[in-house]
Amino acid sequence: MRLSSQELINAVVVNKGKADNRLAAKAVISTMTDQDIVELMREQSAAELFSVIDVTGFGMYHSPQNLRDGHVLPLEPLMERFGNVDNYNSVPLILGTNRDENKVFMAQDPEYISHWFGVIPRIKDKARYNHFAAYSSDQWKALSVDEPALLLSETQGDVYAYRFDWDEAPSTWLVDFPTLLGAGHGLEVSYVFGDFIGGISIPYLLSEENEAGRLALSASMMNYWGEFARSGAPGQGSDGEQVPWTAWNNTGNKILLLDTQAGGGIRMSDTLITAQSLKQRLQADPLIASQHDLCRWYANLFINSYQSTDFWQQGEYDNLGEGGCKQYDPYQFEE
Fold first, then answer.
1. CB 187 within 8 A of CB 137
2. CA distance 23 to 322
3. What per-residue string of b and e applies to 225-242 under the rule 16 or more CB within 10 Å gives b?
4. CA separation for the pair 151, 308 (Å, rounded)
5. pLDDT value, residue 1
6. Distance in angstroms (rounded) separating the CA atoms of residues 12 and 49
7. Facing residues of 115 across strands?
8. How many whole angstroms separate alpha carbon 250 and alpha carbon 96?
């Protein structure tokens, strides 16, 4: 069920025993004033609100939709606001993603994963797993980093971008961590804070064999983040000995790749992924064999996601591929 703000209120009404089901809740709400609804929602504890929200693996959940109200959130889309430096507080910023963001979530998806003895995750088809993990992971980079940076670098400059590539977790006959998780979502947090005990903890991910490399990478990252906090530019880190991290350049190097020496080391790169390049990949992909799946991937990348929906185009969706997608409500694919 799509969790709009209305649906959240419906669920709260049912949870409070004021209605037996969603349809009955809608009828109850239709008799309430705006103030009644405000008071009802403010009565709820955090635990009560979370009790009606579906929580998925690793503590992620589908939150209610944010509404552009012109007060808390601007009415215009994000990319439109960033198009004029007078519309926002212009300060130096760091944008970044992990190379394999979505693998943490795909590792829980029965479409791609089976479990030995109900516990040990096994990838059904590694080539297919990597192929489709790249779409969602590259979407994070395109919509959260590259597209905003392309625009911000023109309006304000002082944009620094990175991609975290560390994927040196152990691979055993039980679990192939480098393929299963790779440089997955959230794994960089421990490196930024130099904390491999209190940070994100996944059993067996850390080992003596990868200790030297990850500690050196963590030291470099702390240098960059510390210097950025001090001066507004990560440069060569607070010790002045790191690989120079230069600002995003639309015609040159754009992002800093963060990896150990075994993985190619820390270096600048001109790699770029845009919304348009993702759309072109989808339409030319021989592994997306049906119109249904083409529509599903387009919808989940550009409207049913954690990222900006600024690149969703209804007309493009309606005419996608050979048969178009008008017959499919894009929200039916919401994961």
1. no
2. 37
3. bebbeeeeebbebbeeeb
4. 14
5. 45
6. 7
7. 121
8. 16
Answer positive or negative: Cα dihedral of 9, 10, 14, 18.
positive
Count of beta carbons in the 10 Å neighbourhood of residue 174: 12
Beta carbons within 8 Å of 24's beta carbon, 6+ residues apart:
14
Joined together, the tokens standing for residue 28 give 């109850």
Cα radius of gyration rounded to whole Å, the chain: 22
State which amino acid sits at residue 269: S
Mean pLDDT of 113-139: 91
Residue 158 dihedral angles phi and psi, to the nearest 5°: 55, 40
Highest mean pLDDT range out of 54-63, 206-215, 234-243, 323-332? 234-243
**Paired tokens of 137:** 């992971």
Average pLDDT over residues 133-147: 96
Q: How far is CA 50 from the centre of its chain?
A: 21
pLDDT of residue 53: 79
Distance CA 265, CA 221 (A): 12
Could you tell me which of 188, 107, 184, 179 has the C-alpha nearest to residue 140? 184
Residue 309 structure tokens = 């929906």
**Tally of CA atoms within 13 A in the half-sphere of 242 that contains its CB:** 31
Which residue has 């493009």 as its token pair? 316
**The token pair that represents 35 in the structure block:** 């103030």
